[in-house]
């Protein structure tokens, strides 16, 4: 996978709140369909679960995004190392001439 793929999977806190307010489908947006169905069938815990989620959404989004950020960081580190190796090889080839 490349860096752009992982960047396209990153979720936004604002969009998550939008899904919560409009459809109550914030868990589906974060890919947690089992929790989403439970949320709907309990009527959002009769409102209590909905209120609690108002405060917990930023942490849930951060938890979702963390592995994506780690993969992006690994890819960027590898790209940087490859660029440095390529530059060193070019400099060495230029000096040998």
Strand content: under 5%
Spans of 5+ residues with little confidence (pLDDT < 50)? none
- Radius of gyration (CA) equals 21 Å
Discrete helix count: 6
Instruction: Based on Cα principal axes, name the global outline.
Output: rod-shaped
Sheet of most strands: none
Which structural class should the secondary elements be placed in?
Answer: mainly alpha
Task: Kindly give the count of domains.
Answer: 1
Mean pLDDT metric:
90
Q: Into which percent range does the helicity of residues fall?
A: over 70%
Count of extended strands: 0
* Terminal residue distance: 38 Å
Q: What can you see in these coordinates?
A:
With 97 residues, the protein is mainly α. It has one domain. The chain is 85% helix and 0% strand. The chain contains six helices and no strands. Helix 2 runs antiparallel to helix 6 (48-96). The radius of gyration is 21 Å and the shape is rod-shaped. The mean pLDDT is 90.
């Amino acid at each position: 996978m490349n860096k752009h793929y992982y960047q396209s999977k990153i979720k936004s806190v604002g969009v998550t709140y939008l899904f919560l307010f409009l459809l109550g489908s914030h868990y589906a947006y974060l890919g947690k369909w089992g929790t989403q169905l439970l949320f709907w069938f309990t009527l959002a815990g009769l409102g209590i679960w909905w209120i609690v989620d108002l405060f917990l959404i930023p942490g849930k989004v951060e938890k979702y995004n963390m592995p994506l950020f780690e993969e992006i960081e690994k890819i960027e580190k590898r790209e940087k190392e490859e660029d440095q190796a390529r530059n060193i090889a070019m400099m060495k080839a230029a000096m040998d001439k």
